[in-house]
Amino acid sequence: MTKKYLTNTFLKIEDSQLYAIFAWSQRKAEILSFQSWLTVLEIFAHEHDLEKAYQIFLETKSAPIAEKVIIELDKYENLIKDAIVLLADGSLTVFGKGFRSFIEKEMQFELGTLSRESYQVLRQLFSKVQLEDDLESVENIEQFSQLVERLENLGLISPATGSIDWGDLKKTVPICQAFGLTRGTPVDRYYLRKFIEEIQPQVRGNILEIGGTPKDKDFYQIESDSSYVILNLESGPGIDIVGDVHDVSVIKPESLDSIIIFNVLEHCYAPWIAVENIHTWLKAGGKCFAMVPSAIRVHATPVDYWRPLPDAFAWMYRDFSQHKLYVYGNPITVIASYHGIAVEELTVEELDAFHPDYPVATCIVAEK
User: Fold this and answer.
1) 210 shares a domain with 258
2) pLDDT tens for residues 1-48?
3) Is 191 found in the same domain as 48?
4) What is the value of pTM for the model shown?
């Protein structure tokens, strides 16, 4: 079956340039510099079949802007500089007050019918923006398909409504119930290893790991002149201190150079108290190295309270003199993490791609 496409894009003029913006997203806006991009985006708001869309493109690219379109859009000339334009399934909507119009349902102007008649609305709406006229450079369906693929990779075009191929993901139970361990390496461990490789030279001196195990010392490559002890809720081989991270009295104040706390704070009923205690235990200039999963199934060992997101994590470490966040993940790895798809089933490019709205693992280095 031929793949079908749908435009899902917000457009806005800023500083005399045209941008595709991502609604309520931390992702950086994409500059649109080509008329071909506008034409393709407008076509796929209405026609979802690739070959039919290409035929419309051929008919449209050389045609002058229709007089009807020019007259109708003239009324929006002064509005468009502050507006947001949404392309969705069968619609092209101008929101005169930006996202305020989107939410409050005022100053909305629907141009979908005019768009479907001409496929020239975007080019006329944004005619004052200097875009490269590259329409004639798209000469065959192969070049057209490459352009569509590029727009899809940017997130401006997606599979059409009802055409998504769920494949093996359309399940009400996970592919692996053990985070991916039955298939290989869990995704969050890939990101934790990347973080450890980044911070390893900084972990030194009197070191405390909260919730660790004895084998971790070799994994972290602790230097021989550093001391390493483990704090845990329960006693066991290699556990040096039995106690609760919520209890500030279990560690002497200002006695530690480094504190490691990986995959623990989500299990703390009050992680902000744990972080306050860590601050107390560190010497001036001491560092905390922490990681929390942001997208992973519930794992009650013994309980599972939180999924601190990057903003919350930074807030918890606000009393430290400085801190740096390391955030990893994208939509593919969020899905993989929840489904238990293993690292070995993804490419390095898929694992290392970053999207700020889809964190899988959030890490921090915080200095007292």
Assistant:
1) yes
2) 688 999 999 999 999 999 999 988 999 999 999 999 999 999 999 999
3) no
4) 0.90
